[in-house]
Amino acid sequence: MTRIALKALTAAAFATVTIASLTSVAMAETLRDNWCSDVKIRFFAGGAEGDAFASIVYNGAVQAAKDTGAQVDYVFSGWSSEKMIQQLREAIGAAPNGIAMMGHPGNAAILPLAEEASAAGIKMMYQNVPVDEATAKFGGGYVGAQQKPQGKALGEEAIRRFGLKAGDVAIVMSDWSQLERAERELGTLEAFEAAGLKVVKLQSPEGLGTDPNTGIPVITAAITANPDVKLIAYPGGQPLGNAATYMQAAGKNAGDIINIGFDTSPQIVEAFKDGWVQLTSDQQPFLQGYMPILSLCQQVVYGLGAINVDTGAGFVTPENYGAVADLAKEGLR
């Protein structure tokens, strides 16, 4: 090799090392801890402090705050849409950088406040119940299961798994006055009706999500009025986890009536173990806490677009509930 060629090779190698070194320095400067520490966020957990579902959502948000360094104020609403709207007004008035809002109040109630938040430069995310009109007009993302498809899938799985047939009686419970929120149970109801089942549409009592015992008189009365009922579909993890109480109040043994619904929790795990619950659709509430915080941080700090995540994860059954049992007991599933 000539001296000129050797010199050229050495220079090229030096240039490569220099570029690699500069790239490493740039990456080291870009990657940092507490990268969202200057961002203030209001986060809606939905229910009351400590309830089975809201606590998992809250745990996800707390983990995201720890991982990003975001300054997060947590809001609990007892699953009251009216309270959520008042709290959303207060959150906008506090002028945080971002708000992660439960979609339960629906598009009509949220739209004017979403417009106000947009005008104030406040980034929005929504969780648990989609509000497609609000996000289409004023931006934001959605983290949660797609309500109607999830409900329909639950109904179809129950028909297949339990051999339900035309003429069988099923009770489907929901707060039917909350249009967007009730889409999930409506999907289950329509799946049953399409298969020829006789469906009893049962109205949830006020406060069921916070205190599932309020459902005892309503559910026992429905069972008494429909003594040949084969299945009850519940509107969330709180009442589903209370299935044993409802059945015992109605004088039923485990397995006499098929109990299905949504979510996982320590109570639901125990109900699977003891034979009171036969099927649930998992919507991974931990993600519904974690991802909105992450997305708001990314929007504010890095100018990235809003995240949209379908958290519907499939079904938990008597055969596989053990895989999530320990995590459920930790308040993570």
Description:
The protein has 333 residues and is of the alpha/beta class. It folds into 2 domains: 135 residues, Rossmann fold; 136 residues, Response regulator (Rossmann fold, 3-Layer(aba) Sandwich). It contains 13 helices and 12 strands. It has a 6-stranded parallel sheet, sandwiched between helices. Strands 7-6-8-9-10-12 form a 6-stranded mixed sheet, with helices on both faces. Helix 5 links the parallel strand 4 and strand 5. Helix 2 packs parallel to helix 12 and helix 6 runs parallel beside helix 7. The protein starts with a helix and ends with a helix.
Descriptive tags:
carbohydrate binding, signal, 6-stranded mixed β-sheet, Sugar ABC transporter substrate-binding protein, 6-stranded parallel β-sheet, elongated, Rossmann fold, 333 residues, alpha/beta, 2 domains, SBP_2_dom
Return Rg in Å: 25 Å
What level of helicity do the residues show?
A: 40-55%
Strand composition percent: 15-25%
What is the residue-averaged pLDDT? 92
The 3D shape can be described as: elongated
Would you report the number of β strands? Answer: 12
Question: Per CATH, which architecture of the largest domain?
Answer: 3-Layer(aba) Sandwich
CATH first level of the largest domain: which class? Alpha Beta
Number of domains: 2
Order of helices and strands: HEHEHEHEHEHEHEHEHHEHEHEEH
User: Quick one: CATH superfamily of the largest domain?
Assistant: Response regulator
Taking the sheet with the most strands, its summary is: 6 strands, parallel
Low-confidence stretches: none
Count of helical segments?
13
In whole angstroms, how far apart are the ends?
66 Å
Strand order of the largest sheet: 2-1-3-4-5-11
Structural class: alpha/beta
CATH topology of the largest domain: Rossmann fold
InterPro entries: Peripla_BP_I, SBP_2_dom
Protein name: Sugar ABC transporter substrate-binding protein
Subcellular location: Cell envelope
Signal peptide: 1-28
